[in-house]
TrEMBL record, chain A:
GO biological process, one term: nitrate assimilation
UniProt cross-references to InterPro entries, sorted A to Z: Rieske-like_NirD, Rieske_2Fe-2S, Rieske_2Fe-2S_sf
One MF term in the entry's GO annotations: metal ion binding
Name this protein carries in UniProt: 3-phenylpropionate/cinnamic acid dioxygenase ferredoxin subunit
Pfam families from the UniProt entry: Rieske_2
Gene for this chain: hcaC
This protein's UniProt keywords: 2Fe-2S, Dioxygenase, Iron, Iron-sulfur, Metal-binding, Nitrate assimilation, Oxidoreductase
Coiled coil: none
Record-annotated Rieske domain positions: 4-104
From TrEMBL, chain B:
SUF system FeS cluster assembly SufBD core domain boundaries: 181-411
Family: Belongs to the iron-sulfur cluster assembly SufBD family.
GO biological process, one term: iron-sulfur cluster assembly
NCBIfam families: sufD
Protein's name according to its UniProt entry: FeS cluster assembly protein SufB
Domain SUF system FeS cluster assembly SufBD N-terminal, chain residue ranges per copy: 27-173
Family annotation (PANTHER family): PROTEIN ABCI7, CHLOROPLASTIC
Gene name of this polypeptide: sufB_1
Organism superkingdom: Bacteria
Species for this entry: Botrimarina mediterranea
Length: 108, 442
């Protein structure tokens, strides 16, 4: 059963930004955009690219992040693959802010 | 039970100076070599996913500061019985804990033949000038990448095997490296030299003393098989699943020489291994066997390279991988034939058995051929357990789980059949059999 794990103070994550954080030995892309936090597996389901290194598209509907390798976009809220070449969603995780700390709970 | 780890040192300038001070008995050429490699290490960057070789292996979570250089006096730790030496009449054995030698034994009659087998750390202080030639040969380039630089600067412990011309060692030799405690490091070098017409069998394995402590292995293996010599070499990587494993391994096989190299890869959180074989003399032969079984979130990446530099050489590589859970394997194989490598006969194959839909296997075979009279073939397969085979076994009275276990065991049999050392075949079979026993219903 996974729990919320602190990944750092809110001040460490500018808005907008995407940051690689380690949660229980897993790579998670923590995204701060338009006042909200999102957490996704830091893995593009097409070719394993590091999503946290890719460009943010926070003004789009839905807000998304793109893989730096081939440009596949994933929805920040659901992890759904929005564009080719990715066809499978990436996992999203719960995020909350408490006492100035950002916490992530892995989806099992 | 204590370990040889200092609590304060790190892999930084002060830690490196402390390591040099502790190894003041080493020959001057080696100290100088360490300094050059350390400077190169400090100036270099870690590999990243932008590098072709690393684009499928993500090491951004690897933090060197979490690990400590080996220091102090080694203390033997009672680990589990090694797998490969069980029931074997050994000619010699070497044990190390956290990169520090704790045991070195060799039969008197083998010593009398001029064979050297033991800790490389001890050997360089006793026979430093004789070993300089082996270091200078740079079978593994110390500047290949930042891991190679770090190893060349900070290595400790290690194993050396030297077999003089025409000497044949009947009994296998065995070495085991253990990691003990959180932040422990095994930064070792292995140097094996068989002179012309020599024969030997070397079994090496690794193990962690507990399942939870995060460890680091960053090692190199350099093998030279002289003209007409025969080496059977086995390397079983069996760290716990919290260990980072980085390795550069290369064998140079001389004229009419034979090498049988078997790799078992069962442990490690993440492994990135470069395994290279150079067929440097005419009529040389190399057989490479690989067995991997991954589970949980393990990521094992093996880059293999069969380099045919001379004519009439044969190389035959077979890697068999079974993957569970959300584990991942990456195999990148290359057969390279130089223009001089006419009449080459080379083969490489990688088979992957997917035991879960969430596992992933990347197989990337490749050929680079400059000669015009060769036979080079390669193959790769990936698939799930065949439902028809399960159905057939169940129609014969087996349960589904028994059928799956039997099919997985059979999958590995092809590579077991190639291994000519009974104890190795049994040890690998037992280690994999244990994991197969734990397989859930498919």
């Amino acid at each position: 059963m996974s729990e919320f794990i602190p990944v750092g103070p809110i001040t460490d994550f500018a808005d907008p930004s995407s940051t690689l954080v380690e949660v229980d030995d897993e790579s998670v892309a923590l995204i701060h955009a338009a006042g909200s936090f999102y957490a996704l597996d830091d893995v593009c389901t097409h070719d394993g690219g590091p999503l946290s290194d890719g460009p943010l598209h926070e003004d789009e509907n839905p807000p998304a992040i793109a893989c730096p390798r081939h440009g596949a976009k994933f929805a920040l809220t659901t992890g759904a693959a929005l564009t080719m070449p990715a066809t499978q969603p990436t996992r999203v995780h719960e995020v909350k802010v408490e006492d100035g700390q950002v916490l992530v709970k892995l989806t099992v | 039970m204590t370990t040889a780890i200092s609590n304060t040192t790190k892999f930084d300038a002060a830690g490196f100076e402390a390591l040099l001070a502790e190894r003041a008995g080493e020959p001057a050429w080696l100290t100088e070599r360490r300094k050059v490699s350390w400077q190169a290490f400090e100036a270099a960057n870690w590999p990243s996913s932008k590098d072709e070789e690393w684009m499928r292996t993500d090491i951004r979570l690897f933090k060197l500061d979490a690990f400590k250089p080996t220091a102090g006096v080694p203390v033997a730790i009672a680990g589990e019985q090694p797998l490969l030496s069980h029931g074997v009449d050994l000619g010699g054995r070497v044990e190390s804990v956290n990169g520090a030698a704790t045991l070195s034994e060799l039969d008197g009659e083998i010593i009398a033949k001029g064979v050297v087998f033991g800790s490389l750390s001890e050997a360089v202080t006793q026979h430093g000038d004789r070993l300089q030639k082996a270091f200078d040969r740079e079978v593994v380039s110390p500047t290949y990448d930042r891991f190679a630089m770090l190893n060349d600067a900070c290595w400790t412990g290690g194993v050396v095997l030297y077999v003089p011309k025409g000497v044949r060692i009947e009994k296998p030799l065995h070495a085991v490296s253990r990691l003990s405690g959180a932040g422990a490091t095994d930064m070792t070098k292995t140097i094996v030299v068989l002179e012309e017409g020599a024969e030997a069998t070397l079994l090496m394995e690794s193990a962690s003393t507990d399942a939870e402590s995060a460890g680091l292995h960053n090692g190199t293996i350099e093998i030279v098989v002289g003209r007409g010599a025969k080496l059977r070499y086995v390397n079983l990587q069996n760290w716990n699943n919290r260990t980072w494993h980085f390795a550069h391994q290369k064998a140079v096989v001389g004229k009419e020489a034979q090498l049988q190299w078997t790799i078992g890869a069962l442990g490690a959180r993440l492994a990135k291994v470069n395994q290279r074989v150079a067929l440097a003399g005419a009529d040389a032969e190399a057989q490479v066997n690989g067995v991997m079984f991954t589970q949980g979130k393990q990521h094992l990446c093996y880059n293999t390279h069969q380099h045919h530099e001379a004519p009439y050489c044969r190389s035959d590589l077979l890697y068999k991988n079974a993957l569970q859970d959300s584990s991942r394997t990456v195999w990148r194989g290359m057969i390279q034939v130089d223009e001089a490598g006419q009449r080459t006969d080379a083969y490489q194959r990688n088979d992957n058995l997917m035991l879960a839909a969430t596992a992933r296997a990347d197989s990337i075979p490749g050929l680079e051929i400059e000669a015009d009279d060769v036979r080079c073939t390669h193959g790769s397969t990936s698939g799930r357990v065949d439902d028809t085979m399960i159905y057939y076994a169940m129609s014969r009275g087996y349960t589904r789980q028994e059928a799956v276990r039997m099919i997985v065991t059979g999958f590995f049999q092809q590579v077991f059949d190639r291994i000519t050392i009974d104890s190795v075949r049994e040890a690998l079979g037992e280690a994999i059999g244990q994991r197969v026993q734990d397989l859930p219903n498919q």
